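Can't paste images in this forum, so I'm doing it all in text. The chain is below; anyone willing to post the predicted structure tokens underneath?
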Amino acid sequence: MRVAAVIVAAGRGLRLGETVPKQYLRLGAKAVLRHGLDTFLAHPAITCVQVVIGPEDGDAYAAAIEGLSSDRLRPPVPGAESRAGSVLAGLVALEREAPEAVLIHDAARPFVTQDLISEILAALEAAPGALPALPVVDALWRGEAGAAREPVAREGLWRAQTPQGFRFAEILAAHRSHAGAAADDAEVARAAGLDVRLVAGSEANFKITNARDLDRARAQMESPMDIRTGNGFDVHAFGPGDAVMLCGIRLPCDRGLVGHSDADVGLHALTDAIFGALAEGDIGRWFPPSDPVWKGAASEIFLARAAGRAAERGFALSHLDCTLVCETPKIGPHAGAMREEIARIAGIAAERVSVKATTSERLGFTGRGEGIAALATATLVRA
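Text version of the structure:
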């Protein structure tokens, strides 16, 4: 499906008290307009993007896209006094592209995501229109002269966002036949009898309208969510003994595991995964086996320290996953207890911990029963 996008940037947007339209204000290193534009150009399904600008905004637009080179970005076209008129101008300019679908987006929503674009396009497979929206959850009141007059039922009410998606020929015809103003393109589509599906929107995809919104956007740019993923791998050989420590649980076994500490291969791999996500080396750097203080130490000390270090850096442990590779002992009956113990040590809920087991089909050192291996993944989030 050939998909085009129209980005509406023709409004004056001077309610912020600035001397330039809000779409050209700086947000981080780029203009507000540029953030959304870059997202659309980066989406693999978008074949071309048409920006609609104010007739007097040519210089501001040129500054906003400075350094941008894309064969999918079309020269801007001037908009109209109304939003509906500006959208129509963008749609008409795209006729020669013959797209099958079009996404219409307000330039003042800089935090649109590629995932949302994909969800809108998926909805267009089943309907001629799709609208991202959020349900109204607050109590609603009709006010007059600064006083609350009467409550308004919020059931069935939604807050509309953009991009709104449509099959191109149908929305172009709807805009051409629509008389008067419209709050958004879904209103134009519904007036023409088109079905418009609701798609889950995002609170982060807000529109910059006033100075408070601009402050919120700048704060969001200054403190982006930081998501880290780290991997861990560890191996310990079998040796003399009658039990093994695995993921904090002592399991009866006809042998033990050989190691400088208690040789808990699962907790070692998890510890490495957390330090890896933090880009702070591995377990050997933090707890060197050459240091006698760690001889025979309980491995929960290592995992607790790694979790504590993540907290010091401002990260929350979102998820821990450990896979044990062995022929013996049997892990399944103890996986639940292992999850609980890992959660206790790391200070997170057990629902954020996964423990799995597999064999190597009698291949390699684990298949020959010479030892146990563990693989782990840690996901850290800093908001």
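The two ends are 36 Å apart (CA to CA). The first strand starts at residue 3 and ends at 9.
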